[in-house]
Amino acid sequence: MDFERSATDAAAEADAADGSPPAVELAGVTKRYGEATAVDDVSLRVREGEFFTLVGPSGCGKTTTLRLIAGFEAPTAGTVRFFGESVAGVPPEDRDVGVVFQNYALFPHMTVGENVAYGLNFADPPGGVTRDERVADLLELVDLPDAADRDPESLSGGQQQRVAMARALAPGPDVLLLDEPMSALDARLRERLRVQVRRIQSELSITTIYVTHDQEEALAVSDRVAVMRDGAPEQIAPPRTVYREPATRFVAEFVGDNNVFAGRVTAVEGGGKGDDDGDAASPTAAVDVGGETLRVGVDGATDVAVGDRLTFCVRPEYLRIDGGASRLAATVASAEFLGETTRVTLDWGGRDLVVRTRDPLSGDIVVGFDPDDAHVIDVDGA
Amino acid sequence: MSNRRASSLRDRIEGRLLTALAVLTSVVLVVAFYYPVGTVLIEAVVVDGAATLAVFAELLRDPFYFGELARLFAGESPLAVARALLDPDRRLGIVGFTAYQAALSTVASVALGLPAAYLLARFEFPGRRTLRSLTIVPFVLPSIMVAVGFVATFGTNGTLNSLLSALGLPTVDLLFSLPAIVVAHAFYNAPLVARVTTAAWESVDARAVETARSLGAGPIRAFYDVVAPQVYPAVLTGAALTFVFTFGTFPIVLALGGFELATVEVFVYRLVRDLRYAEAAALAIVELVISLGVLLAYLRYEAKNAVSARGARPLPRKSLLPSAPTARELLPRVGLAAYAVVAATLFLAPIASMVLASVTGGDGALTLEHYRFLLERQQTGAAFQVRPWPAIRNSLAFASAATLIALPMGVVVAVLTTRRYRGRTLVDAAAMAPLAVSGIVVGLGLLRGLVFGVEVAGWRIAASGAVAIVVAHAVAGYPFVVRTVAPGLEGLDRSLIESARALGASRARVIRDVELPLVWPGVVAGAAFAFAISVGEFTATVVLATGADAYTMPVAIERFIGRRLGPATAMGVVLLVVTGLSFVVIDRLGGESRGL
Asked: Which of A252, A311, A369, B552 is least enclosed, having the fewest CB within 10 Å?
């Protein structure tokens, strides 16, 4: 893997093998408001039928990116394409997108049925069904078959959210855009609803772009995730890759708990070009972190040399008590009981480490990890 | 891929509708406001085809207008002028007197309005909501009717003197005196002060007061530190508006002060009647500059000191019944009771006196002779005499027509001024200017231009007085439509509009399907406002109703008032009923909207 490569290039390359044009493509899209840059030269491709998630902290530009796709905002620079064709200057009503907002935005002066039917004023119901049949089908799809005559405000938040989904889907849009659709709901309901959203998306196999600040939600529902920071994606990859092989330190720390280390490489052992043995052991780098030598698997990072500065991470679940090749003597600083596990913060020579355990810990302990459980984030040549 | 329909012809027409209405609105504004006002203003600086400031210079140096200050403009030393101003025999001139009575009226309005705000914001009692909505009445109450009420109360044979002579006391003649004008102005503007102050007081967050109390401030200290700073900008708003309104006062002074106590606006009217147009225009400009100066100074102050407290938990209201016989519980309530007596007298007496006078004969007995007089005059009156039916018919017809024009204008401007784009403030200011310019100037401009005829590319275009009155009323009333509709549009969730657009609705279609239905009460309230304003409009109408047949109820009342108070009050009652109905509509549908 080439560590200097930017996240956007990786995404473009991932699509190169696939012949069909992407359902949604952003090419060098920038959005500025006066001096402030909300979206900074973003390029990404969303495949047809894909569930694609933009995730990041507030202010990272994810919602603005979605609004640029919907047509509520015009890019300062760059192009948005739908199925290979530029949509520059096309107003939102002509883009064939369905949008669901965080606050549901149901029309309060219309019934649930009228809300769902509203888009059918401007589009024929897909599949040759009548308007009423289409409304009934969609309310069925979101498990609210008897809600058509109800007043939106008489529904619970979760129900309103489902009506908003049905309304957005009714005209049969090409792309479904979801802007933090669940942030106003409580945690348990959110988990139930995201399963339902994913089920509906798979059933219709509709291209979906989902914006959330909740990294756990992003990992749970998506085919691919773009982790955004300061107006641009840092990594675009499937959830497993983002979690296991974060491309940057920011991604490593934003997605899940993580322990990030950095230090000089003092030796590289095993593997390498000179090894003619077909299945040689993975090369390992010895890294000096705060005077302690830690052994890190550098599989793929072939150009690691002595003297390089290496940044790597070890997930809390890979830090084993009294185990592993590299051992760290630390002191328990604090512990949070989470039910299933306990998240323990350790003090290792003035640095914080996070581990997860089932049993309570206290006092001085030793934790360790194997070279293969460490993931290299960045190599900086000397 | 797409199953979205191509846009139909109807959609395309709808899409253009907004643009078309915006263009029409601009045309109406130019024809009925900017062009006429412009011609009047030009008249003041162009004499015999040459640009000159001579008219102004003369005006500024004339002690008749500027009193002792005129000597300053004439080049005398400021010290001598200052000494003359401190002299008890100082002359104020017409402009000085206008400012003086406006200042007195402002003080009176604030003094009368603040206790009402205290009562409305801090106490709970039956009828509180009704009382609060009644504070909007002055906006729709025709000022000429207030004048009739005051004549009926304080006139030589008014209620007050009947009461005094019944008690064996000497009668007083308050009419045509400064106190009568100031009290009438307070009647008109105290509710405005009370309204804006109550709104600010109600938006004070109880948590802020509770925090101050928990940090050690006593109740009075907490009031000074937390409540007062949030309330007093609103008091200032009320005061600034009152000053501007009373500075440009016309019907009340015309009816209660006559030409002896003329204010600037009354004198402009007199100059117009004497056909001294250049002088009238120059004086009107002086008035406009002073009014706008006060407004601008105030707006700058407001912009610097704006405090917004949204989503606050309001202070809990107290019961009007004291919970304990302590001084702190009793004093404010006794004070409010005394205030209630004064306020009830002041606010109810003119209306009650007017109704009473309309059914009281010369001998003091109850009679319907005044109404009968109106009917007889209708049947037998000569063509040159003011007859009641044309007045009523004209009022209703003009008001309906003016509302039909003002409504789309107001909605379009509300839509345009609640969107975000560069130059929005300019559009807003240009659209709201009719609120600031005197009706006399608009009326005069329309009279000299549209009514007397304009030559455009060889065609002579002239409108009847009736048409000019309708457009003048529409222009005067439509800012109120904007003010009732715009806050609703502004408050609409953006995502509602964006949802509709993503579902395929064009921008114009969203206005029709989503925005207007959601702000509909504001639109209806705006229509009621426009109607009431037109029915009560006097200033521009009296200038334009030169012909025998274009007079409205307020003009008829003014023509009756000097000679026959009885019929004037009877007509006043008719006017009261019409505007009362408008008020009920406004109150039911938009009285609580934040626009006013």
From this structure: A311
Residue with tokens 């000097």: B562
Q: Between B408 and B444, where is the model more confident?
A: B408
Give SS3 for B139. helix
Domains with residue ranges and CATH for chain B: 23-52+386-596 (1.10.3720.10), 56-91 (no CATH), 94-321 (1.10.3720.10)
Residues of chain A with CATH 3.40.50.300: 7-254
What does the alpha-carbon distance between residue B137 and residue A96 come to, in Å, rounded to a whole number? Answer: 50
* CATH dotted code for A7-254: 3.40.50.300
* Nearest of A261, A168, A250, A177 to residue A215 by alpha carbon: A250
* Residue of B3, B500, B502 with shortest CB distance to A97: B502
Residues forming beta bridges with residue A284, ordered by sequence position: A269, A297
DSSP 8-state symbol, A318: G
From the number of C-beta atoms within 10 Å of its C-beta (0-12, 13-18, 19+), residue B363 rates as exposed
Of A114-123, B393-402, B516-525, the poorest mean pLDDT is in B516-525
**Which residue of B lies nearest to A106 if distances are taken between CA atoms?**
B496
Instruction: Label residues A261-279 b or e (16+ Cβ within 10 Å = b).
Output: bbbbbeebeebeeeeeeee
Compute the nearest-CA separation of A362 from chain B (Å): 42
Nearest to B5 among A91, A118, A124 (CB): A124
Higher pLDDT pick, A231 / B526? A231
**Does residue A94 have a pLDDT over 80?**
yes
Q: Tell me: the pLDDT tens digits for A235-244?
A: 999 999 999 9
> Which of B:480-519 have CB within 8 Å of A?
493, 495-496, 498-507, 513-514, 517-518
Phi, psi (rounded to 5 degrees) for B150: -70, -40
Going from the C-alpha of B270 to that of each of B36, B93, B259, B265, B522, the distances in angstroms are: 19, 16, 8, 9, 39
Q: pTM to 2 decimals?
A: 0.77
What is the ipTM, given to two decimal places?
0.80
Maximum pairwise Cα distance, chain B: 94
- Does pLDDT of B594 surpass 60? no
Distance CA A278, CA A270 (A): 13
Chain B residues in contact with A94 by the CB 8 A cut-off are 4, 504
Which amino acid does the sequence have at A102?
Q
